[in-house]
TrEMBL record:
PROSITE patterns: PROTEIN_KINASE_DOM, PROTEIN_KINASE_ST
Residues in Protein kinase domain copies: 102-388
Gene Ontology molecular function: any one: protein kinase activity
Name of protein: Probable LRR receptor-like serine threonine-kinase At1g56140 isoform X1
Residue stretches spanning the membrane: 34-54
Pfam family, one: Pkinase
InterPro entries named in the record: CR_Ser/Thr_kinase, Kinase-like_dom_sf, Prot_kinase_dom, Ser/Thr_kinase_AS
Keywords tagged on the record: ATP-binding, Kinase, Membrane, Nucleotide-binding, Receptor, Transferase, Transmembrane, Transmembrane helix
Signal peptide interval: none
SUPFAM superfamilies: Protein kinase-like (PK-like)
């Protein structure tokens, strides 16, 4: 029978001579604790030798970054705990390298929050790095991270994906997936040679509507974008739209749920109740969406002061054309040439008019807009006049509605390559 160690001790304790044996054997053999102590010293010595040998390869600034990151990680982890699976924590050096030290050649654009750079990560992934020019006194670390948490906790195919963030000293950076076809303003405002046919434009309109429906109604929190406009709509390689900068509006100080003391938005897209009284609700986004739909259909900017006065503000011009049964003139002539289903375009313009209703409460919800666009509900209402200032232009400035379409510069004059939307 095999005797267990404790059994052996029990037997020996029973006899005084055996007890002496135990003591003598203990003093002649080193204890386990001593082995452990010696082992630790040997490992420490090896580490010191390695440190001495490789000291010239160790960059003190990298150590500083490393320690800074490890200090911040617990804060970030704490705040982002629910979403760690969706977000990466980038260190500043990685993003500096990816964007070639934020080189001008990599500059994609510059917005209200700072410049955006194209970056290539070590795993070859292309990213758009937004360098926020945030004043530390206004934007505290926890607020920045809380914001990132909101953005990463929502995902939809029509929203730009935030891949990660970086918070290092005063630097705040957001890392987004890079979208190959950049932003819609480049196409709509003619900064690019690309031409999108009606089918592609309709897919873009519908995609934006679905993204907004998710933000307003379907995500676990109610999110108002506040800055829906062509430059915040990004297009992937198949020209599917993704709304960018959602939630970023919350970076503004004194963010409030309804009455907003700080205006955040872009002139020309802003709902009247929000611009004048600071009343903020989803309906402000819906108004901006209405303006954007008109821009996509007509391929022009919402405000263009170089045009005759009646044509300068797009919703006003669209309404006047509607009243004169001339809505056809609003449509980008290139999509007319391409052979559009006129009924579909008119339908989309009508939906835009509903979004531009002067009273916020009378504008449809985003889910209703999606249903209208996909013809799941029939439109029975007639649109109301959008809000705009009546002009008392000088007599000689007045132009006849017969000649008005000739005054609009025709995009047909440019030889643009055409893009056929692949379904
Ligand atoms: N994820 C991205 N992929 C590709 N290009 C991007 C991406 N994000 C931004 N851009 C480009 O960078 C430009 C600047 O973007 P940014 O959002 O900072 O400014 P903006 O949209 O013009 O103004 P705002 O600050 O009001 O949103 C965009 O117009 C777009 O062309
Ligand atoms: Mg933007």
């Amino acid at each position: 029978m095999r005797v267990m160690p404790y059994e052996r001790t029990m037997i020996r304790v029973a006899s005084p001579s055996a007890s002496l044996d135990v003591q003598s054997s203990k003093s002649s053999q080193p204890s386990g604790g001593l082995y452990f102590f010696l082992g630790a010293i040997v490992i420490l010595l090896i580490l010191l030798i390695l440190l001495f040998v490789f000291r010239k390869f160790i960059n003190p600034s990298k150590w500083k970054t490393f320690f800074a990151c490890t200090r911040k990680q617990p804060v970030a982890k704490d705040i982002l705990s629910r979403n760690l699976h969706t977000i990466s924590w980038f260190d500043f050096q990685t993003l500096k390298k990816a964007t070639k030290n934020f080189h001008q050649d990599n500059l994609l654009g510059r917005g209200g929050f700072g410049p955006v750079f194209l970056g290539k990560l070590e795993d070859e992934r292309l990213v758009a790095v937004k360098k926020l020019s945030v004043d530390k006194s206004q934007q505290r670390e926890s607020e920045f991270l809380a914001e990132v948490r909101i953005i990463t906790s929502i995902q939809h195919k029509n929203l730009v994906r935030l891949l990660g963030c970086c918070s290092d000293g005063d630097q705040r950076l957001l890392v987004y997936e890079y979208l190959k076809n950049r932003s819609l303003d480049l196409i709509v405002y003619g900064k690019s040679d690309l031409f999108l046919n009606w089918s592609a434009r309709f897919q873009i309109i519908l995609g934006i509507a679905r993204g907004l429906q998710y933000l307003h109604e379907d995500s676990h929190m109610r999110i108002i974008h506040r800055d829906i406009k062509a430059s915040n709509i990004l297009l992937d390689d198949k020209f599917q739209p993704r709304i960018g900068d959602f939630g970023l509006a919350r970076f503004f100080p004194e963010d409030q749920a309804y009455l907003s003391t700080n205006f955040a938005g872009t002139l020309g897209y802003t709902a009247p109740e929000y611009a004048i009284r600071g009343e903020l609700s989803e309906k402000a986004d819906i108004y901006s969406f209405g303006v954007l739909v008109l821009e996509i259909i007509s391929c022009r900017k919402n405000t263009n002061l170089t045009l005759p006065s009646e044509m300068q503000y797009l919703p006003e011009y669209a309404w006047k054309l509607y009243k004169h049964s001339r809505l056809n003139d609003l449509i980008d002539p290139r999509i007319r040439e391409d052979g559009i289903v006129e009924k579909e375009v008119m339908h989309a313009i009508h939906v835009a008019f509903f979004c531009l209703h002067p009273q916020a409460s009378s504008r449809p919800a985003m889910s209703e807009i999606v249903a209208m666009l996909t013809c799941k509900v029939e439109i029975v209402q007639t649109p109301s006049r959008p809000i705009f200032l009546e002009r008392k232009g000088k007599k000689d400035e007045k132009i006849s509605w017969d000649s008005i379409s000739e005054a609009l510069p025709s995009p047909l004059k440019s030889d643009s390559p055409s893009y056929q939307h692949s379904k």
